[in-house]
Design a protein that fits this description.
The protein is α/β, with parallel strands linked by helices. The protein is 32% helix and 19% strand. It is globular.
Length: 461
């Protein structure tokens, strides 16, 4: 057997058409056929004409965004008028908007970035896009022209925040100017083409009243959390991906008094604090040479030298957990952070694991004593099957019993209430009847709690 035949048999080289035999259907699911844009050629022609007309003006640093948009739209109209392709007025308007989105925004994704009902955008390749509305995923009829078009959009996003993505560094976390979270993965680790996920942030941040209206929390729980933040308790927010941890962190942060100095530490700056005295720190990945990385742990240590009244860490996911616990235990009360977890108990287990990632051989008991002393309250949040995001546990860290950190649930979500005709959960947070030990601390600071707040409520009623 010749070398070419052996390679062909291993599917490394194609054989001649006459020698090819039909193969069994692949078990790998195929995507639906890509949609064809009837005005694709027109848009490419108009796009090229726009670049020829405006040229360097598109990158003029002296033009503000509004003036640049006006110039682009005016030039678009004149270029479109010269085009002889027969189109209706509606089609002409759509082509102009899509080309403007490509020049000024993020191409085919721009309409969904402007849509306030869309909470997440998922690009599974240049020819498949999904969006999330009301907690449900739905495909949308938009596509990128090809893989290079999608890569240009990703590069445009990450370049704005000084990040990069290429074969040497094929994963990146970034953000849009409005704070929306961006994750991109490109070949070679993305086998079927580049992947892009955008978790949108509301232009107007959600308030505690919004979360009460959504059913995420109840009014009494909001009163308790406000008192805990003002009373400088250390709070840990746990939950799974997309459960609303960062939104709840934003709301809790809004309870911090305006006269306090707040330092935030994040991988990609997402928090939208409205206080005046806020200092924002953001981690930095390594450069092409593998140098220059500034990790979350470095930033947490640095905040201790910045005279903070509050330290707010967007998420702990590594050895920074040790530095965060030490900060909480050395006079920096009122700190707030989030962690990925499945339950309040699991939040502590993950913290314990992450402390060990710091590289110090600490005894298990010492770590648990640090956690029991540092953390006062755990808020656990879940994304339920109906797509809603609910706080399911408000749990106090009560102390240590032997080798175990003791927890007591103050509020639990009432799953016994069942679901309604549309599949929505009827339940809400209900008290367990237990009074927290931190009430005396709050009272010592003049922060009162309504006496009936912790009265027992029977589930299912």
């Amino acid at each position: 057997m010749s070398l070419a035949e052996r390679l062909a048999k291993q599917q490394l080289l194609p054989t001649s058409p006459s020698s090819m035999q039909p193969r069994e259907a692949s078990t790998v699911p195929r995507r639906a056929a890509r949609q064809i844009d009837p005005f694709g050629d027109v848009k490419r022609s108009v796009h090229a004409g726009l670049l020829d007309t405006l040229g360097p003006k598109l990158y003029d640093a002296h033009l503000d965004q509004r003036e640049l948009e006006q110039r682009v739209m005016d030039t678009l109209q004149s270029v479109l008028q010269r085009d002889e392709t027969p189109m209706t007025a509606g089609d002409r308007k759509r082509v102009a908007q899509e080309v403007a989105d490509e020049i000024l925004g993020h191409g085919p994704l721009e309409p969904y970035l402007r849509d306030p009902e869309v909470t997440e955008i998922m690009v599974n390749g240049y020819d498949q896009v999904y969006v999330e509305r009301s907690g449900r995923l739905n495909p949308v009829p938009v596509v990128f022209a090809d893989e290079s078009h999608l890569r240009r959009t990703i590069d445009k996003i990450v370049a704005r925040v000084g990040r990069r993505v290429d074969e040497a560094s094929p994963m990146v976390d970034a953000r849009l100017p409005d704070g929306s979270r961006v994750n991109a993965v490109v070949p070679p680790i993305a086998l079927d083409g580049s992947l892009l996920t955008i978790r949108k942030f509301a232009a107007d941040p959600f308030t505690v009243d919004d979360l009460i209206a959504f059913g995420t929390m109840t009014g009494p729980v909001a009163d308790l959390l406000r008192a805990c933040v003002r009373g400088r308790l250390n709070v840990l927010i746990g939950g799974g991906t997309g459960s609303g941890k960062t939104t709840s962190l934003n709301v809790l942060s809004s309870f911090v008094p305006d006269d306090e100095r707040i330092v935030t530490v994040e991988d990609a700056a997402e928090l939208q604090l409205r206080q005046e005295h806020v200092l924002r720190l953001e981690s930095r990945p390594s450069n092409v040479e593998g140098r220059g990385q500034i990790a979350i742990r470095d930033l947490v240590r640095n905040t201790l030298r910045m005279r903070p009244d509050r330290i707010i860490v967007g998420e702990v996911r590594d050895g920074a957990a040790l530095d965060m616990l030490q900060a909480m235990n050395t006079g920096h009360d009122g700190s707030i952070t989030t962690v990925h977890s499945n339950s309040p108990r699991d939040s502590l287990s993950r913290l314990e694991t992450m402390v060990l990632m710091a590289g110090l051989e600490l005894p298990q008991r010492a770590i648990r004593e640090q956690m029991a002393s540092a953390i006062d309250l755990i808020i656990h949040q879940s994304r339920l099957k109906d797509g809603t995001r609910r706080i399911t546990h408000i749990t106090e860290v009560a102390g240590m019993e032997g080798e175990i950190v003791t927890l007591q649930d103050l509020f639990l979500f009432d799953f016994h209430a069942g679901v309604d005709e549309s599949g929505k959960y009827r339940g809400s947070l209900r008290t367990t009847g237990l009074r927290p030990r931190f009430l005396e601390r709050l009272q010592d600071q003049g922060i009162g709690i309504p006496p009936g707040l912790f009265a027992f409520e029977e589930p299912g009623r």
